[in-house]
Amino acid sequence: MPRLQRKSFYTPDTVREFPRGRGELVSLDETVIGHFRFEPGWRWSHDVRPIVGTEWCQVRHVGVIVEGEFHVQLADGTTMDFAPGDAYEIPPGHDAWVKGDTACVGYEWAGSRVYARAPEEDADGILATLLFTDIVGSTTMLERIGDKAWSELLLAHNAMIREQLDHHRGRELDTTGDGFLAMFDSASRAVRCGLRITQAAHRIGLAIRVGCHTGEIALVAGSARGVAVHTAARVMATADAGNVLVSKTTRDLLATADFGVELVGTFEFKGLTGPREIFRVAMSQP
């Protein structure tokens, strides 16, 4: 629940240092805000890539520049410059570097939580609730409305899902063309996010299915690995349009007063041992 609170960057919760750069983080419950400083000569591919081990930065950034300038290049070749006073969004899959002889300083409210973390920080395994989404009938819709309209709709879909992930404190791990994989540190928050996604998708003319499963995963170079990832994908694939399905593990962790839960059935998933009970979830009516 939102509450009146205050944090100071003079005494940050976390300090993350890396070559020619530094990040200071404060946490306001569901929101992590970062204050960053990149020195002249800093470049992600030179100074951060050796830490995280990915070809491109896979973190989505939303923030504002208050001092200095930097340049961003996306994996597809798109480029953009940013200067003081510029608010920005940078999607996953990019390189970036400081322009000129002045340090680049700014604040971010999306991306700081995981930026410049070494893979081994999460490689021992963490317990998380995974959320998979998928647009139902995407190929049919693409054929019906055409490439241009579909591209615009997909952009609206991506923005909508990322807005919900940010609101519910989810961490985007991957995109699958017309779907997302995200992780949460709360089963209830993950499921609530899934329900809001299906509602928001309906408003823009899309039918989305969602699947959630809670289990242990390892994060390696920003990617989730483990049986739990495959289980969550199978749960999602079982869902019909507009439905949020969860495994029994996730069902047992929900705040039951907030949700209506019904058994869909027991399923055998390819590559996974034993039958799995799967449940449909809806928001409880007041």
If you had to describe this structure to a student in words, what would you say it looks like?
- The protein is an alpha+beta fold and 286 residues long.
- It has 2 domains: 14-117, Jelly Rolls; 120-283, 2-Layer Sandwich (Alpha-Beta Plaits), CATH 3.30.70.
- The chain is 25% helix and 40% strand.
Class based on secondary structure composition and strand pairing: alpha+beta
- Distance between the ends: 18 Å
Cα-atom Rg, whole angstroms? 20 Å
Number of helices: 7
Keywords, separated by commas or semicolons:
286 residues; alpha+beta; Jelly Rolls; Alpha-Beta Plaits; 8-stranded mixed sheet; 6-stranded antiparallel sheet; 7 helices; 17 strands; globular
Give me the secondary-structure topology.
Blueprint: E1 14-18, E2 21-28, E3 31-38, H1 44-47, H2 49-52, E4 61-67, E5 69-74, E6 79-82, E7 87-90, E8 94-99, E9 104-110, E10 126-135, H3 138-145, H4 147-167, E11 171-175, E12 180-184, H5 187-203, E13 208-220, E14 223-225, H6 227-238, E15 244-247, H7 248-253, E16 259-268, E17 275-283
Parallel strand pairs: 13-15
Antiparallel strand pairs: 1-2, 2-3, 3-9, 4-7, 4-9, 5-6, 5-8, 10-12, 10-13, 11-12, 13-14, 15-17, 16-17
Helix pairs in contact: 3-4, 4-5
Question: Quick recap of the structure?
Answer:
The chain is of the alpha+beta class and 286 residues long. 25% of the residues lie in helices and 40% in strands. The strands form three sheets. Strands 10, 11, 12, 13, 14, 15, 16 and 17 form an eight-stranded mixed beta sheet that branches.
